[in-house]
User: Which sequence fits this backbone?
């Protein structure tokens, strides 16, 4: 795609959160202009770029050139790739790197990477000097449509995923859709699970469009930009109404309660299961569990599973290779999930495609029976 | 003092921050009723009590009994006393303790201790599950009049003090003025420096009252409660207008820019200098530097120094025992202080008692000359 076409295929989603509002700019090739965009939003700021070794190999030079061209001084802090970097140890490393660079509150931390780098760098920027400026340049589909909207940041604990963090909104998100061409097909599919999630939460028309358009989205071009933009808009609409997850925002956890339990069960081993795959299985489980509770039709659950399977995503616990713990243990992982409230199990269930809702007081016994019925043979 | 007199000598300061508003209850003996007070504000919450070994010896049993009487389940997390506990290592320890107790967002972290415990427990409560409820029971004068108002939490870095943290407001502060009887005279005096600070910032009448009443405040009784309440109200008024320190709140740093540099210079060795003593010296330096710059009268600087010296506080760099680094090094500590903005030196200076202001672009050369003129002989 040439520069002109790129400019024509560029769009901006505004996240409206009062004085914490910011733009998500989406389009192919826009990383090359990142320095100028940043300097317009944060004139005079110096930058600490946080990235991982894999992403640095693909995109760091482009970003450094863009920052140099705009006269934005910068230091680079590199962490190892993978979920294990969301730890206290690496948090301290990033925080120390930012302080060693003598950045002040008015300067900026840039996250160049996927969800792990975004969560880690965002958390660090939220606690250095009690909150510095933060700019996200998400390089995975998952990060572009999920982590880049809503300000959740954090690290993992031995007690569970994302249990430690802050809400800290970025000042700007630059989502270069062409960067996704460097993803493996498996990584792209995993991110696609979160795209489909927005249709399943409250936009049945979007889910219908995805069923028709998914191959164009995977191929790149205008359909990809549209899918990212509609996902970001969908999440922004929810976050604007409930920034700190006191209610509706929990809908974004569709598929995540089952999903997190499966990630814990596989020890966050990305060879066996990555986050988007866990969400894919979790969303199908949420629809099938809803059907079992007579809340939704079996047809809708089958339609969800058929689409996710068509794009190549796992949809059943039995799709996970290797041993898994027994159902009681899985239930205990679900109960430690942070969306538990006062011991009652809270799930996102559904009345059908695009009709998800927050179900409180779901009986643990029903969940256990469902898990047992679905035990891989 | 009997219970009845205690009840009559009890007062509440309201900190008005919209949905983050909270009460500071002040009076002698009110720790014994802490469980009921907490349960009224946070019904059904379980608690993690964070304290240090010294404070635990004096007050933990009283708090545990109060919680038991109110049916508030609780776990206790104890850290070593002293500034060194404001570290990543102890932060992780407290966070792990809260998660191991399986507390949820609707539960509560209680800080029972001085400024160190408040800053550490407050930070932990601000990042577990991206923000849990927090209640402060400050046990030092410094914590009752300073740390308990305004929601600043944090730990130290090798790069400087309080450089890592979040803004996280408590739901309730219980300031039992009788607990201060367990402080050493030196600890009480150090806290008193922050009381005097409120007069020096913008309340000359309060400073005048302190000059007359300080012995009653040290002795306990109604004057002590009044001094604590007026200090909290004074800080609350400023914080309500500027919660996140984008402007006026910086006035609360009167004496702190010089003070932090001296704390760094003495390696946070409490045998040589504690925070309130550093603030005392820093406030006198701020007044004398202001007089040197022809911003305030020498008489006012002398009056400030005379009062602080009368209560037994250090007022000069020469009051610090042992070797200190040279003036260039002290200046470099000042320049790393987080109140630096884009390389310019920002100080809180004054036009006289109760007339402090934020001075930006203070020439580093003038500060250096002032430090050299005051070199201990």
Assistant:
């Amino acid at each position: 795609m040439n520069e002109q076409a790129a400019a024509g295929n560029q769009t901006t989603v505004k996240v409206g959160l009062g004085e914490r509002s910011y733009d998500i700019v989406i389009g192919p090739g826009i990383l090359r202009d990142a320095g100028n965009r940043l300097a317009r939003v944060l004139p005079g700021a110096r930058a600490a770029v946080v990235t991982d070794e894999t992403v640095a190999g693909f995109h760091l030079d482009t970003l450094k050139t863009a920052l140099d061209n705009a006269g934005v001084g910068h230091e680079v802090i590199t962490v190892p790739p993978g979920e294990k970097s969301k730890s206290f140890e690496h948090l301290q490393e990033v925080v120390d790197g930012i302080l060693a660079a003598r950045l002040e509150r008015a300067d900026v931390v840039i996250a160049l990477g996927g969800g792990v780098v975004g969560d880690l760098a965002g958390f660090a920027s939220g606690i250095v000097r009690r909150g510095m400026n933060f700019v996200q340049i998400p390089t995975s589909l998952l990060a572009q449509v999920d982590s880049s909207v809503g300000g959740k940041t954090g690290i993992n604990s031995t007690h569970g995923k994302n249990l430690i963090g802050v809400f800290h909104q970025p000042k700007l998100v630059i989502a270069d859709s062409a960067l996704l061409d460097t993803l493996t097909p498996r990584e792209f599919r995993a991110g696609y699970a979160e795209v489909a999630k927005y249709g399943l939460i409250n936009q049945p028309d979007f889910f219908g469009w995805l069923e028709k358009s998914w191959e164009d989205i995977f191929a790149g071009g205008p359909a990809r930009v549209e899918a990212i933009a509609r996902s970001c808009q969908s999440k922004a609409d929810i976050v604007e109404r409930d920034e700190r997850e006191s209610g509706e925002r929990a809908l974004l956890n569709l598929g995540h309660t089952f999903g997190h339990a499966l990630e814990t069960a596989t020890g966050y081993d990305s060879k066996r299961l990555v986050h988007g795959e866990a969400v894919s299985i979790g969303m199908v489980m949420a629809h099938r569990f809803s059907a079992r509770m007579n809340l939704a039709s079996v047809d809708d659950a089958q339609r969800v599973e058929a689409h996710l399977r068509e794009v190549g995503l796992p949809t059943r616990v039995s799709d996970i290779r290797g041993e898994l713990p027994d159902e009681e243990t899985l239930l205990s992982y679900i109960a430690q999930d942070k969306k538990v409230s006062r011991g009652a199990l809270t799930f996102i269930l559904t009345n059908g495609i695009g009709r998800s809702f927050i179900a409180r007081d779901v009986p643990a016994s029903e969940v256990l029976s469902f898990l047992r019925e679905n035990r891989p043979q």
In short: DSSP finds 14 helices and eleven strands in chain A. Chain A touches chain B through 35 residues (CB under 8 Å). Confidence is low (pLDDT under 50) at residues 1-6 of chain A. The radius of gyration of chain A is 20 Å.
